C-alpha cells in the first residue's frame, strides 16, 4: 500500500508503508503544517510497514520540532507492525500514548 497522508485541523494521519524514500514527502507535509501552529498531532496508527531509515527520520522530525519550540505528538505506540523497528532503532521514546 502506498503512503497516504491525510490532514485535519492540527493533525496528520499517515497510512500505508513508511520507507526512507517516501518519508521525505511526510517531512514536507509536517514542515508545512508546523509553520502555522505551535503543536501538531501525527497519527501513525495505520502505518503497515516501517523501515529503519524512516524510524530515524521520524525521530529527526520530532527533534527538529522540539528545537523550533513546537510540540509534535506522535501516536502509534500500540501499532504492533512498527513496534519492533522503533524498539530496535531506539526511537520509540518519541511515541506518545495513543489516547491523548
Short key terms for the protein model shown above:
alpha/beta, 100 residues, Transcription Regulator spoIIAA, five-stranded mixed β-sheet
Please describe what this structure looks like.
There is one protein chain. This protein has helices at 23-35, 52-67, 80-88, and strands spanning 4-8, 11-18, 39-50, 71-75, 95-96. By secondary structure, it is α/β, with parallel strands linked by helices. The protein has a single domain (4-96), classed as 2-Layer Sandwich (Transcription Regulator spoIIAA), CATH 3.30.750. Helix 3 (80-88) links the parallel strand 4 and strand 5. The longest helix has 16 residues, at 52-67. The radius of gyration is 12 Å and the shape is globular. The mean pLDDT is 91.
What is the number of helical segments per DSSP (H or I, 4+ residues)?
3
Task: Indicate the radius of gyration in whole angstroms.
Answer: 12 Å
How many domains? 1
- CATH class identity: Alpha Beta
Under CATH, the topology can be stated as Transcription Regulator spoIIAA
Return the CATH architecture: 2-Layer Sandwich
Number of strands: 5
> Distance between the terminal alpha carbons, to the nearest Å?
27 Å
Can you write the helix and strand succession as a string?
A: EEHEHEHE
The CATH homologous superfamily is called STAS domain
Net shape = globular
**Which sheet architecture does the biggest sheet show?**
5 strands, mixed
Strand numbers in spatial order across the main sheet: 1-2-3-4-5
